[in-house]
Specification:
The chain is an all-alpha fold. The chain folds into 2 domains: 49 residues, no CATH class; 184 residues, Cytochrome Bc1 Complex, Chain C (Up-down Bundle), CATH 1.20.810.10. It is built from 12 helices and no strands. It is globular and about 65 Å long.
Length: 261
């Protein structure tokens, strides 16, 4: 009874050289576990399979116009907005390790960040200026989308999603304004919530929901903190995922795929 020899794949042979051979083959094996197609695909079918099998390739548009790939068309404003949001999340998590959402401690903790915490001033300023920059870049991104016609059919829904994301960005900036608990933040929230109170029908209820009381105090600080670090970032993250998915499904970056170059 004869047994046919089974030819092992190249990756299986790599582990036969002992520990040294396994360590040498490890980078290649890790690379091939992420990028499954090798060598590079040559046919349309292989390219489609390669894109479908890779997450980073799959989130990109299946097709786009040559004009949309030029930097001067998009200015990279959408990705810059995403990068600023990531910076805000990371720096915000570090700030949460020290900040206390209490009227008795919030302002003192902000002072300690400026004088007693290592790199505290840098971290707070990074978070603050990234928030200002994100508001400005998101606004510029929406202007770019409008001027390049990227809001036209079949992208109307994604324009609505983007508008909602811009609103979430403004709300994030607004809720973060109260957290330092200084005079500027206090009176800004007093004015802001008073304006919200003038909304028809639901104005007073909306103001009470935001403040948790009829005046700005500990309840308002706690609610703004929860909105700022949990609710709004979660909604914004889900919205960004939907936004990128719609960009891919709608076929490009700068304008509808029905337009000709």
């Amino acid at each position: 009874m004869s047994v046919d020899k089974v030819k092992l794949p190249a990756d299986a042979d790599a582990g036969k050289g002992g520990l040294i051979g396994t360590l040498k083959a490890m980078p290649k094996r890790v690379y091939h576990s992420v990028f499954r197609f090798r060598p590079l695909p040559k046919t349309h079918m292989e390219r489609s399979q390669a894109v479908a099998a890779n997450f980073f390739l799959h989130i990109h548009s299946a097709k786009t116009t040559e004009r949309a790939l030029k930097f001067r068309t998009t200015l990279g404003l959408g990705l810059i907005s995403l990068y600023l949001f990531i910076i805000l999340v990371v720096s915000g998590v570090f700030l949460m390790f020290y900040y206390v959402p209490s009227p008795d401690a919030a302002y003192d903790r902000m002072l300690d960040l400026r004088g007693a915490v290592f790199f505290g001033t840098f971290l707070r300023n990074l978070h603050r200026w990234s928030a200002h920059a994100m508001v400005a870049v998101v606004f510029a991104h929406m202007v770019r989308v409008f001027l390049t016609g990227a809001h036209k059919a079949p992208r109307e829904f994604n324009w609505v999603v983007g508008t909602a994301l811009a609103l979430m960005t403004l709300l994030l900036s607004f809720t973060g304004y109260l957290l330092p608990w200084d005079q500027l933040a206090y009176w800004a929230i007093v004015v802001g919530t008073a304006i919200a109170g003038y909304a028809p029908v639901i104005g007073e209820d909306l103001r009470f929901i935001l403040l948790g009381d009829y005046t700005v105090g500990g309840e308002a600080l706690l609610r703004f903190y929860v909105l700022h670090v949990v609710v709004l970032p979660t909604v914004l993250t889900l919205g960004i995922g939907l936004h990128f998915w719609r960009i891919r499904k709608d076929g490009g970056l700068a304008r509808p795929d029905t337009d000709e170059e």
